[in-house]
Design goal:
Length: 466
């Protein structure tokens, strides 16, 4: 399935002056990417960084100018990731510009109609380094005292970790290993991060591959019923019966941590979470939603089982007390064409919701429409209420080939000719996206700040022949 398109967004900066005479701000790296320091008037500073590692990229080519501009300015970034554009080398810089970044191993990135003296533009590595991980092992307090379930049932606990708050972070999707459980004279392989109780035995010596940094560990405890068909997993059903959690953790790369014990949350410390949902946008027939426990620096725990939808609107979540007293809840919902077809799609995000009453999702951000890719021109119809639009060109496997972010409200654009051409011959896709971020200014905004304010992302795509 195709993923929601990503946006390289955008920090707040003070005006720079000297001796009572205003002048251009000095070069400044905006951590995480962004736009700042006032409108362009002769001087432009562009830093280029790796989207994931945030390290600066030297020898990246920065092109300033419209796609057809024969006098476009080009500068390579230095060892600090900086490209400087000043009146003597790039005359006529004033107001909004189009900036295109190219670097070896990175798909091109184009920002259209951006207007800030300092830009920091993150670009995504086509072959990023391996995600840094740590290994944790332990058990769940009281597991051995849980009752043995009846025939055709077993109690399972899936141990996981709070995800980072960076959308699309690969560290949130780590693959878990396997371990062996001995029952009588037989050895059974099970996922390493799983605990199990059934009539044959009990085991809760889990091993978890987790991300690095501050986080919480969580176990979702479920009753599995095999539908009286032990050899057929397709009709199995799962009912959540509880949770166990451990906050305040911080792991370093390749750090092994043993003897971790997760504490079960008692029923008295649980509460209902009820939501209601507006009708789905035209062309979308499937939706799923879930409450997310927002832990600040320790990340986010998504309670995705059971998923909420139009028919199931209520679940149970831990109360915000004890170790969770400083946390809050959000509601994240996604609507799409069908369960297996995720375009067109729209994501709604309600922040800091009041769990004591029904959380009402009153509207969805519709996706861009009338999307076209013809003769090198890309266009779409804008989405009312969107803060920002963007696009992405991908191959038929979903690999990013070119990323575009539009700051000036344009709905039609062409891309500069690059050599070699980053777009291969054949069938490709052009996806258009809309993003809603209340309370920000596109002339003075930071990616890290904006991410906490996103309330909607939508997208759709078309295929075309290049």
């Amino acid at each position: 399935m195709r993923r929601l398109l990503s946006f390289p967004f955008l920090v707040v900066a003070a005006a720079f002056g000297c001796g009572g005479v205003d002048g251009p701000a000095p070069p400044r790296l905006i951590m995480g990417g962004g736009v700042g320091d006032g409108a362009i008037s002769g001087t432009l500073y562009v830093h280029v960084t790796d989207e994931e590692t945030r390290e600066v990229i030297s020898s990246a080519k920065v092109r300033v100018g419209e796609s057809s501009d024969p006098a476009a300015c080009e500068v390579l970034t230095d060892s600090t990731g900086l490209a400087k554009f000043q009146p003597d080398s790039c005359p006529g810089l004033a107001g909004a510009v189009t900036v295109t970044i190219t670097a070896s191993g990175y798909p091109p990135v184009t920002w259209i109609g951006v207007n800030g003296v300092n830009l920091t533009i993150p670009i995504r590595n086509s072959n990023p380094p391996a995600v840094q991980t740590a290994t944790v092992s332990g058990t769940i307090a009281g597991w051995s005292s849980l009752p043995v379930p009846g025939a055709n049932h077993q109690t399972l606990a899936v141990i996981g970790y709070s995800g980072s708050t960076n959308l699309g972070d690969r560290a949130n999707e780590l693959t878990q290993g396997m371990r062996n459980v001995t029952v009588g004279a037989q050895v059974f392989p099970i996922p390493s991060n799983l605990c199990v109780i059934n009539q044959a035995g009990s085991d809760c010596d889990w091993i978890l591959t987790t991300r690095t940094g501050p986080q919480a560990l969580v176990a979702i405890i479920v009753d599995e019923f095999n539908g009286n068909t032990p050899d057929d997993k397709t009709d199995d059903t799962y009912m959540v019966t509880g949770y166990a959690i451990k906050t305040g953790q911080n792991f370093s790369k390749d750090q092994p941590t043993n003897g971790m014990t997760l504490d079960m949350i008692v029923e008295a410390d649980m509460q209902p979470f009820t939501a209601s949902f507006a009708s789905l946008p035209s062309g979308m027939d499937f939706m799923g939603a879930f409450p997310a426990l927002e832990l600040g620096a320790e990340g986010r725990i998504a309670f995705t089982t059971p998923a909420l939808d139009m028919a199931r609107t209520s679940t149970r979540v831990p109360k915000l007390s004890g170790a969770l007293a400083g946390a809050h809840y959000s509601l994240i919902a996604v609507a799409q064409d069908s369960e297996t077809q995720d375009s067109p799609s729209t994501l709604a995000w309600m922040h800091d919701v009041n769990v004591s009453s029904t959380v009402a999702l009153s509207s969805w951000l519709p996706p861009p429409s009338n999307i076209l890719a013809t003769g090198g021109t890309y266009s779409f119809s804008a989405v009312s209420g969107a803060t920002l639009h963007g696009g992405e060109i991908q191959d038929m496997t979903g690999k990013r080939l070119w990323s575009i972010t539009i700051f000036d409200g344009s709905t039609s654009f062409t891309l500069p000719g690059l050599s070699p051409d980053p777009l291969p011959v054949g069938m490709l896709t052009f996806g258009a996206s809309a993003l809603r971020i209340p309370g920000i200014s596109l002339g003075n905004v930071a990616l890290d700040d904006a991410g906490d304010k996103i309330t909607g992302i939508s997208n759709d795509f078309v295929t075309f022949t290049h």
